[in-house]
Design goal:
Trp Operon Repressor, Chain A, 2 domains
């Protein structure tokens, strides 16, 4: 599956090109702190952690307790893992490779 073509436009292309220029964690912190709210960053981080936990077959209750995510968020992440653009899968596989 490919990415959502409704998402693609010149502004989004430019954003992703900028993100790809970041060279390390510090640069990511600096850029994302300026471009996103703390809440937006925390939400993205939470969703990634939910995806990691879903991969280990953790229960919704365990995930909710560990991450503070709502069952709606957990369900949405699970749906993306199974029927999404494989973005979570790509990152989860690469994270596993680094371990």
């Amino acid at each position: 599956m490919t990415y959502n073509t409704r998402l693609k436009d010149k502004f989004t292309d430019s954003l992703f090109e900028a993100i790809l220029l970041l060279e390390n964690e510090e640069e990511c912190y600096r850029f994302f702190e300026d471009i996103c709210t703390v809440s937006e960053i925390k939400s993205m981080a939470q969703r990634l952690e939910v995806a990691k936990m879903l991969e280990t077959d953790a229960t919704y209750l365990d995930i909710a307790e560990a991450t503070g995510a709502s069952t709606a968020t957990i369900s949405r992440v699970k749906k993306c893992l199974h029927y999404g653009a494989d973005g979570y899968r790509l990152i989860l596989d690469r994270l596993k490779e680094r371990e």
